[in-house]
Structure formats: structure tokens, C-alpha cells
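Example 9 (inverse folding). The structure is encoded as follows.
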């Protein structure tokens, strides 16, 4: 059995050291270049789907299409795991009712639109999806409200 020490590092020490340095570097670069806000890790179920557009650009009649597992969220976007591949740049709505107590939400408060930034296959039937929230709902094209448009 080989024990490593700082005086005699093994290939395991070198490999772990390399990975930790790389991840630290990428983390700093990622945080500085892509995010001006804090990302919060969490674990919560959610549904993705489509809505109809009501008067005043309000979402109504949520139609769930996919189950998702939210892994992180920030004021600018959301990360999740899905069993389905999603095309990049589509607009879809996430229903966050599992995260907002019923007494604190209106009918629409749990529904947020986002544009898919990326979808990466991790395993068979497991995809990592990242999306950017669309904060000005009036900018969503009419055709993107009730169907997925690439």
C-alpha cells in the first residue's frame, strides 16, 4: 500500500492536484465572465411546459411537457436535469410551484419563461440544461407562447 506525502507525491496526488487547480481556475473564470449574480445550489422538482398568452402578457393554462430536477438558480438563469433533449435557443416555461408556498403565490407567480442556453447529454436519458430567464415577457414572440419554436 502506497501512502503519499508532500515529500513524495504519487500520480494520484498529481491528478487530484491538477483537477482541483483546473476547477478552481474555471470556477473563477466562469463566475467573473458569465455571472454577475450568485448561483444557488438546490434540489427541487419542477415541470417544463407551454402557456397561453392572456391579456397583459400574462401566462395562463400551463401545459406541462417535461419533468425536471432543478439543480441551481440565480437571478439571471436556471440549471436542471431532464430525461429529454431540448433544442438550444427555444423558449419554454418552468413551473416552480414546488418551491413557492401556495399561500405566497398567485396563479402566475410560479411560472417563469427562459431561453435554453445549452443542453448537454450526461448519460442515456439524462441531460443537463441551462437557461436564461426572459424578464421582459413582452419580448417573447407570439409563436413561442403555445408551441416550441426553434
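The amino acid assigned to each position is listed next.
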Amino acid at each position: 500500500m502506497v501512502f503519499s506525502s508532500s515529500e513524495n507525491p504519487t500520480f494520484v496526488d498529481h491528478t487530484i492536484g491538477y483537477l482541483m487547480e483546473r476547477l478552481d481556475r474555471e470556477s473563477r473564470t466562469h463566475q467573473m465572465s458569465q455571472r454577475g449574480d450568485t448561483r444557488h445550489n438546490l434540489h427541487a422538482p419542477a415541470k417544463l411546459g407551454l402557456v397561453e398568452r392572456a391579456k397583459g402578457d400574462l401566462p395562463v393554462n400551463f401545459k406541462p411537457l417535461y419533468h425536471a430536477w432543478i439543480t441551481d438558480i440565480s437571478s439571471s438563469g436556471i440549471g436542471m436535469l431532464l430525461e429529454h433533449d431540448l433544442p438550444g435557443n427555444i423558449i419554454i416555461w418552468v413551473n416552480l410551484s414546488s418551491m413557492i408556498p401556495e399561500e405566497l403565490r398567485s396563479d402566475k407567480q410560479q411560472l417563469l419563461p427562459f431561453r435554453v442556453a445549452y443542453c448537454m447529454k450526461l448519460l442515456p436519458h439524462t441531460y443537463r440544461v441551462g437557461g436564461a430567464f426572459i424578464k421582459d415577457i413582452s419580448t417573447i414572440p407570439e409563436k413561442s407562447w403555445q408551441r416550441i419554436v426553434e
